[in-house]
Design brief:
heterodimer, A: 114 residues, alpha+beta, five-stranded mixed β-sheet, three-stranded antiparallel β-sheet, B: alpha/beta, five-stranded parallel β-sheet, 8 helices, 21% helix, globular
């Protein structure tokens, strides 16, 4: 039995995961918790949110995120990729600035207009 | 110049209030914002997890802000940026200054206070030691890193385990800094569980509960932070000192509603929330002056800030139209055992509009309790809770029918379930 806290929403449900019993999840208050609990033990994933440099906007940096969660062990590699991105304003929220990063199928997208 | 509604602050509370005031019939609305853009502090909160209640999806702060900015921009609502409000008079004359209009006074039929909150600083908690650079509030560091593009340091200690402190521990780590520890005075964290998991545990950052900073050293730049364990009276225990060599100390030691303008206008504040005493229509002690969001009490979730903003906007519009705005039948909500504060503090029984929503905070970590609402010995409602914590705002919803025969003050308290 593994105990963990679901990180998908501010509820922070206390999950119990039965590792020997096909990762059966209890303690979740929504179906997302079930998927999370199993995935967290087999192949944990995270959404990465950060910033990239922008020229010509009202700020120096523009916030970005991965549009899908990526494997947790690739988080720092993803941060490394963001270092070299430079974009020109104006751009719209949702604009893809880097596609299919590290072969994960996830894209880096802007999270605001700039 | 006269406006129906003047909204002070263009963050999530102010945006929701302006939108809702317009949708409920107010015309001639202006939002006064101090920064160079709308969105408030959400613009620097680039992490995700916003909007799950409101939009049923996980948004980052700027994405959440942008949704509300677009809602507001579809209406003819005037927006004044880089505008500092200097004073609100009792007659609702607002004096302000900005680079375009210079100094200006405007009159308002109704005012919505949505100025948010401010971080407690080193001075507020009296950390001893020298005064080197490298000591920031967590939110200031967040703005430097996420919007201005300046890194604040290489090795950091964070004091305070509220959500902003936890989020910044992750943020600094992702940007290549080493976070030595997050230090928390209380025996429990003030942040959400999910943030302890994904911001500290993910990166093996230690959380030191019942510890505090007792000294800072460094002449020009911070060089060392001394941390010690505290006893049950929060006094440092000699001999438990830990020395961290670091160049940065982030403070995440609480937020205080920003009520300088409210105070000068004569709005009565609640000394528990540090925000205005409000009724269920978000009206303050001054008729026609409404308040919403973190200026009233500090929220954990922006979703509830928006909800409160919408309520303030709606009742501001109704105040102007003079509909359903009787304030004859009033009951006070009193804090009983275990309850630190409630919002609203005053219930306008003539103006419930089907339901009463009560936000509250508890004074300790509790398991298996019930929140009881009673008038004398008569229990009006009770709500079971498996888990309660000071860091997690609680909300209960009472249908209007339950409040039909109320004549006295109502008490809200925790009891054994």
């Amino acid at each position: 039995m593994k105990e963990m806290i679901c990180i998908l929403c501010p509820m922070g449900c206390h999950l119990n995961i039965d590792v020997e019993n096909n990762y059966k999840v209890t303690g979740n208050s929504c179906p997302k918790g079930e998927v999370y609990g199993k995935e967290e033990l087999i192949a944990p994933k995270r959404v990465v949110t950060s910033i990239v440099r922008v020229y010509g906007g009202i700020h120096h940096m523009v916030p970005v995120k991965t549009d899908k969660p990526i494997p947790k062990e690739l988080v720092f590699d993803c941060m490394e990729l963001l270092k070299d991105i430079k974009i020109e304003s104006p751009k719209k929220v949702g604009t893809v600035v880097l596609e299919n990063i590290l072969g994960t199928g996830s894209n880096i997208v802007l999270t605001r207009d700039i | 110049m006269r406006y129906d509604v003047v909204v002070i602050g263009g963050g999530p509370a102010g945006l929701a209030a302006a939108k809702s005031a317009y949708e409920n019939g107010a015309k001639n609305i202006v939002i006064l914002e101090r920064d160079k853009e709308l969105g408030g502090i959400l613009q620097q909160c680039i992490h995700n997890g916003f909007g799950l209640h409101r939009f049923k999806e996980e948004l980052t702060g700027p994405e959440y802000a942008q949704k509300y900015i677009e809602f507001v921009k579809q209406y003819p609502i005037e927006i004044k940026l880089e505008t500092m409000v200097l004073n609100i008079s009792k007659e609702r004359v607002i004096s302000m200054i900005n680079p375009i209009d210079g100094y200006q006074e405007i009159e308002a039929s109704s005012v919505i206070l949505a100025m948010g909150c401010r971080e407690r600083t080193r001075g507020a908690i009296a950390i001893p030691g020298e005064r080197p650079s490298g000591i920031f509030t967590a939110g200031a560091a967040q703005r430097y890193i996420n919007m201005e593009g300046y890194m604040v340091g290489k090795k950091a200690v964070i004091l305070g385990s509220g959500d902003i402190g936890l989020i910044m521990a992750r943020r600094l780590t992702l940007e290549g800094a080493k976070v030595e520890a997050v230090v928390e005075l209380m025996p429990f964290s003030g942040g959400l569980n999910r943030n302890i998991v994904q911001c500290l545990d993910d990166f093996d950052i230690p959380l030191l509960l019942s510890h505090t900073v007792i000294d800072v050293k460094g002449k020009d730049r911070l060089e060392k932070v001394v941390v010690a364990k505290v006893d049950e009276n929060k006094k440092p225990i000699p001999g438990t000192e830990i020395h961290y060599d670091c160049d940065t100390l982030l403070l995440s030691v609480g937020l205080i509603p920003e009520n300088d303008l409210s105070k000068e206008a004569g709005v009565i504040l609640d000394n528990r929330t540090s925000g205005p005493i409000v009724s269920n229509s978000m009206e303050t002690s001054i008729p026609g002056v409404f308040a919403c969001g973190n200026v009233v009490h500090v929220h954990d979730l922006v979703d509830f800030v928006s909800e409160e903003g919408e309520r303030a906007g709606k009742f501001a519009a109704c105040y102007i139209a003079e509909e359903n705005c009787k304030i004859e039948n009033v009951s006070n909500l009193k804090n009983g055992d275990g309850i630190v504060y409630t919002v609203p503090q005053v219930i306008n029984l003539d103006n419930l509009q089907n339901k009463l929503e009560i936000f509250m905070r508890v004074n300790n970590v509790y398991k298996n309790k019930k929140i009881v609402i009673r008038e004398g010995d008569n229990v009006i409602a009770s709500f079971k809770r498996a888990h309660l914590a000071p860091g997690e705002m609680e909300k209960v919803l009472l249908p209007e029918v339950l409040l039909k025969r109320i004549s006295k003050d109502i008490i809200i308290e925790l009891q054994e379930a």
